[in-house]
Amino acid sequence: MKIKDIKYEEYLRDSPIPPPPRILGKHWGVTKGKMPFPILKIITDEGIEGYSLSYKVIPKPVIDKIKRIIIGVDPFNREWIWQEFATLHAWGRIYGEYGRETLGDLAAVDIALWDIAGKALGLPIYKLLGGYRDKIRIYASSYRLPTPGDYAEEALSCKEQGITAYKLHVDSDIAIDACRAVRKAVGDDMTLMLDGGTGNSREQALRVGRVLEELNFYWFEQPLSDDDIEGLVRLREKLTVPICATECVAGGMFSIPEYLLRGACDMVRCDSLISGGITPCKKIADMCDAFGVLCEIHLAGQIPNLHVECAIRNCTFHEMFWPEVRNYGLKEYPVLDDEGYLHVPQKPGLGVEIDWESLGKPIASY
Length: 366
Prior knowledge:
The chain is α/β, with parallel strands linked by helices. It folds into 2 domains: 3-122 and 356-365, 2-Layer Sandwich (Enolase-like, domain 1); 127-343, Alpha-Beta Barrel (TIM Barrel), CATH 3.20.20.120. The chain is 39% helix and 19% strand. It contains 13 helices and 13 strands. β8 (243-245), α10 (256-262) and β9 form a beta-alpha-beta unit. It is globular.
């Protein structure tokens, strides 16, 4: 089997970011309630097609370069392809031809190749990776809400629906009050996490961390910029609440060893879209497993991430936007049961089917 062609199409879909978009909305490229929905298709000479669904827009010159590199290559040579693009990314960070976003380009290729492999072999991706389970607990991941009471109300609503864990995304000015309000509302038997809430200030991170210890939070995510490794090391030495970091490291997989060796965090973060694909996510998870560290995966690559999570031991949750987002252009979605578990698709490859009719006409195609 050989790679015959690559097609890229870009659609518009409803944005999962509620108004006003604020900083997060701008990051996602939200315009008037819409955001890009790119689809990369890799076509083989045996008629099997692999897909990657993303938020990462890939320019035509990049697609042209991808074609020059991988057309004619065996799609099962995922490791060679991934290493080839990882080298380009590394050189780009030095010379500027490619930036950090190249990892998103690589991710789209890698995910589509795993989809091809699963379809060719008649197995879901998590089975190819070495299946560990077929479902995983979710935590509801909040948007930024106006008041502490709003967080408390939402967390309690999640608990009443069978969701057993909740994470706050909150600005630093109300972080402590919001965390206290949520714990008071849901009681002691719900797992809680905090993402941010410090403004990247070491002093504020320590203050918030002390409160999280008191409230028995499960983790404290991105209390400081991931670039501040020394600050993370010192913060972890002073706190007992587990520190979760590395979501935004520029070097992707190759940056993780320093955090593990220096003890900069208790839990490592990665994502199939942000880190460069399913291949590096599995590598990162295995690296963490060797150190006895949890690898808690981010939510951007929803379906690919679910397959990785169900193929590894050292991940406890799947992150899900709340209210739940169901506008990814699919005909069916993974099942979320009434006990708060998300079930991985059992069909070959990614195990999902694109609802082309709902997407309408592409705004770009090359």
